[in-house]
Amino acid sequence: MALSRRQFIKGTGIIAISLACGGGTLTGCASKTAEDALSTTGSGAASTTVMGFNGEITVSLAVDATTGLISNVSIDGPFETPERGGRAVARLQEALNASGSLEVDTVSGATVTSQAVLDAAAWAKAEALGTAPNNPRLAPGTYTASAHGHYAGIPVTVTVVLSEDTIDAVRIEDGHLETALMARAAEEAFIPRLIEQQSIAVDGATGATMTSSAVRLAVEACLRESYAAAGVGPEAVVPWLAATAYDDAPAENLEADVVVVGLGGAGMAAALSAAERGLSVIALDKAAKYGGTTCVTSESLAVNPPRLSELHNGGATFIDGDALKADWLARTQGDAKKDLLDLFFTESGPTIDWLHFDHQWPFNPPNPGHADYATYDCCFTYEPYTLAGPKVEVAARIDGLMEQFNALGGEYLLETEATDLLYDTSSERIVGIRACSITGQEYEIAAKSVVLATGGFGENDRLMEQYMIDDFYPLSGTWHQYGMATNDGAMLEQAITLGAATFNPSVPPLSHLAGFPIDLTGFEVHEKDELSFFTGHTALWSEGDIPSSLCVAADGLAVTRQGVRFTNEEEFATHAAIKAGPEYYTIWSQTQLNEFKAQGLRYADPGPSMGYVGCQSTIPLGTPLPNLDAVMDAGIAAGYIFRADSIEELAETVAMEPSVLAQTVADYNGACTTGIDEAFGKNPDYLVAVDGGPYYAILGCAFYYTTAGGLDINERLQVLRNDGTPIQGLYAVGTDSMGVLMTEKDQYLDYGGAASGWAFTSGRLAGMLIAEDLA
């Protein structure tokens, strides 16, 4: 069963809560102060604090009472992420001071932060002028609004029922293409909190922040519409942005044979496997959903599963497993642990059989993976096979695993973060964990064994700075995630503090995709007369996706952050972007862009990236792009596209050595003239000179799912100390220990679903081995 402190009334898709103080006024209010409002000089000043995306944002400003112009705008948003919310704070402060009014655009990629800033500024202005509404009333009714979540093609539409001073119900309407488990998390975690606390600034559903943000923005739009209908100004929404708090509750003590920290593929497999063997299991996840990154996966690696071989291949093996192992060991250059690779190869087949036949997770016959060296039929795609989109079928498979776990007596806690490993010095073993829920509920869980299945450390700034280094691969810099922001590595740090050893922690992160860091959603979305292979729905495209398309274009020029060309641009289909590290640039001339504007793109984008970003479909070739200039301007305003009159000036704008970029462009243009790319061998059809200013640098990024290195383990999946002895009671599975199969000297090996295969296999084995150890 699911352990929860709070139960909410649910009916026909609308989540509602009865307020005991019916008819009372809204008590939560944004923090605000006014100084000399409408002083004798005809001016005033005020400061307002609201909740932004990650924490409080304070806006201070002065107002001229005669002209209504604002000045001296200062915005403090210390908790916003520097590359998005922080960028928006800086740009909005500049824009508000320059314009003297509130009529400025939000910053693409940071809509929640932007809207919070503008809301706070509007209230501060009204407060300074003495016109802030006092206890404003809503116009009761049912309202509908939309905002973009994870998927840029179709926004999330929300219906809101409002009384004079309360939000009574919120419903996410059908028709969106948000990942199914993410949308459910917003429905079951974020919306109940919003209604209970009567604040749209409550914590979003952990692990579903983009969908939660869409709901927040849509509810705010409904509040604005309601206030407008009541004759009240839009600044009246600010009290709904108040910070919230939960009542203190006494700590709870729980006990189980096994605690599993993390409920992605590895954690679910570990929890279910242990429960199947009669062990009592408590599993927890920081996210508001189970499934982890597995909820957006499509395939899993396995070597010759016996029962599937019988089903699909007449009992014959699919591949020469020894040949694959030899190739794997050669590519990892002696750095992978052979005993763990042997274990993976031996047990991955039975694991896929276990999922397919015993737990209703069907797989197709195998195919080779995606890399050019992936020639072995060891990649088992899920049935049905979809690369992106809502992943409804994957959600159903995940639900099935958790239902079976429940039926075996397993318990789980969502939005509950493990904070400490409990180590008994006398017995020298792990004896449990401490944890805390999003509401502040603390737990101490005694356990005989703890399994770490936390999904790596991609969102841990300290570990990323420590391990994403350039010793073997260009890994330093800002990484952009396409995965779970809850993979924060906190428990890996705990284990390391207790003496756990790492193994290949600097393996390059797991990256398949490349593109523009943000979605530009303010442009018309068009339908294609076809279904999208990626989503299974009508294919959509938008000119807002032009930057992403130009980030992976075969006819472009891609350079590192130092201005050096690093790949044949045709190879963006096969993980080329990460060769440059976390970020790179593509360089374009106005001449090229003018051609695209008049005649459209000429070549199909290589690889799957456009199926995952933006509208999740390619821009039709040969289609004129009349809004291209506006798209580029939007990217420049957002801080991810740069323009200059010369290549040298462009280099200075993006902190490159001008002579280096100038030489790179000259060499590339020379190859375009001769039709021979001696550096990388690109097809001459794609060699198009970068000539005719102004010039543009578009920031591209190698999106990553998760890190691929972690803790050292032995064949029983026990975490090892630096001296090679096991830490009794502590196990690590999935990407928390996948470094034992990899090397730091090259990319994550993509034979097709290796991370998923290791997650399921190591998780299943952990449950089995713990049962043996506790017998």
Structure report:
The protein is an alpha+beta fold. The protein has 3 domains: 28-132, Sufe protein. Chain: A (Alpha-Beta Complex); 252-510 and 706-755 and 764-774, FAD/NAD(P)-binding domain (3-Layer(bba) Sandwich), CATH 3.50.50.60; 513-703, Flavocytochrome C3, Chain A, domain 1 (Alpha-Beta Complex), CATH 3.90.700. The strands form 7 sheets. Strands 10, 11, 14, 15, 16, 17, 27 and 28 form an 8-stranded mixed β-sheet that branches. A 5-stranded antiparallel β-sheet has the order 1-2-9-8-7, with helices on one face. A hairpin with a 5-residue loop joins strand 5 and strand 6. Helix 5 (265-276) runs parallel beside helix 9, helix 5 (265-276) packs parallel to helix 17 (754-774) and helix 8 packs across helix 17. The two termini are 25 Å apart. InterPro entries: FAD-dep_OxRdtase_2_FAD-bd, FAD-oxidoreductase_2, FAD/NAD-bd_sf, FMN-bd, Succ_DH/fumarate_Rdtase_cat_sf, TAT_signal, TAT_signal_bac_arc. Residues 52-128, 150-226 form the FMN-binding domain. Its EC number is 1.3.99.33. GO terms for molecular function: FMN binding; steroid dehydrogenase activity, acting on the CH-CH group of donors. This is Urocanate reductase.
What descriptors fit this protein?
Sufe protein. Chain: A, 775 residues, Flavocytochrome C3, Chain A, domain 1, 17 helices, 21% strand, alpha+beta, eight-stranded mixed beta sheet, 3 domains, five-stranded antiparallel beta sheet, disordered N terminus, FAD/NAD(P)-binding domain, 28 strands
Work out the count of structural domains: 3
CATH-scheme architecture of the largest domain:
3-Layer(bba) Sandwich
Please report which band the strand proportion falls in: under 5%, 5-15%, 15-25%, 25-35%, 35-45% or over 45%.
15-25%
The counted number of beta strands is 28
Q: Can you count the helices?
A: 17
Instruction: Report the major sheet.
Output: 8 strands, mixed
Radius of gyration using CA atoms only: 27 Å
Task: Label the overall shape.
Answer: globular
How does the helix and strand content classify structurally?
A: alpha+beta
CATH domain class name of the largest domain: Alpha Beta
* CATH fold category name of the largest domain: FAD/NAD(P)-binding domain
Note poorly predicted spans.
Answer: 1-41
